[in-house]
Amino acid sequence: VKYTIVDKETCIACGACGVTCPSIFDYDDEGLAFVLIDDNTGTKEIREELEDDVLDAYEGCPSDSIKISEDPFHGDPLKFE
Ligand code: SF4
Question: What GO MF terms are annotated (predicted)?
Answer without folding.
Answer: 4 iron, 4 sulfur cluster binding; electron transfer activity; iron ion binding
